[in-house]
Amino acid sequence: MAENFDVNPSDGDLKEERHPSLYFADGDIVISATSKTKTYIQFYRVDRIFLARRSPVFKDMLSLGEGAVNEQYDGAPKVHFPDDAEDVAGLLAGLYNTATLPLTRFSPDTPILVQGIMRLAVKYDIESIRTMIIRHIEADWPHTLQDWERRQHDKAKSLLFDSSDSDSEHHAVLYDRFPEPASAIRFVMEFGCPAILPAAFYELAVAPDVDFSSGIRWGCLHTTDLLTLVAGKSALLAQWAQTVQSIENNDYCTCSYGSRTWEPEDGPDYGKATVKCIIDMLQATNADDPSAPRATDPLNYLRQFDGAKDKHFRCYCDNAKGISDTIKSEAQWIWDHLPEYFSLQGLESTTEP
Fold this sequence. Notes:
With about 350 residues, this protein is α/β, with parallel strands linked by helices. Helix content is about 50%, strand content about 10%. It has helices at about 50-55, 55-70, 85-95, 110-125, 125-140, 145-160, 165-175, 180-190, 195-205, 225-250, 275-285, 300-310, 320-335, 340, 345-350; strands at about 15-25, 30-35, 40-45, 70-75, 75-85. Helix 12 packs antiparallel against helix 13 (about 320-335). The model is unreliable at about 1-10, about 255-265, about 265-275, about 315-320 and about 350-353 (pLDDT under 50).
């Protein structure tokens, strides 16, 4: 069915302007669109066949419009689109040259900048634009534990010269340089690509609680998103308790270091730490460090534990190597179960582009 286009918009008093780069002298059809602010109407002179080949909706509309469109503009048939002029310009520019689409690698603004274009790509069934945008969004987020670990390494490098004192300020720095989770989640809920949801919700779970100075667009989220987040954080806390118990219960060390716990007077360089000792040390020192992982961030806790193990667990018995294996196994278990913690199983099974 053809889209219902307006031939004679009622905005006769609007300022008229021709788009500076999308008004081709040899174009055979003129498209007009009104700005969202209702202050101007913009004209685009483009190629009818070019549009028809890229959109079945355009093809249907243009074929029906041969005899029906009587209004002319600058000697060519004119059709008015009932969409925001900025979005129409972005879509047409992207059709002629995909490099004009606002798709910057790792930009926190991408889901916001492309949403208008994406809505039109869906509305007019332009699969090439839709697929390109979704694939870009997907590529910005980690899909495996190894991808996630590389992202943490990149974030750590970004913070090397950051002098922020608070947790919120640290996150604000990161979300100026890396994908932002709240807007990404909203993009998924409207347009698809649910494969990024586990990583995006995990990012929210480890962030400062609804702190608008943290760089997270909390206002983008709907009530259902927040409920999903709360349930996921609760599940992560429960999982971290199980993970700690699993590590503590395994007797990896056969040396005679004993099982005494770490005490503050031991200092961070206590050289004969058992597994239990390292866990106690991390939990005690992290309590006063705003940038340290929290219990809702078990993956980073395990990364930190693995590093502390190499520094403090100076044990060379045959069983000591089992610690690293268990850490990797526990981290993989948590990553694999993120969809379950955030109840995303149904969404993850939706059709991808």
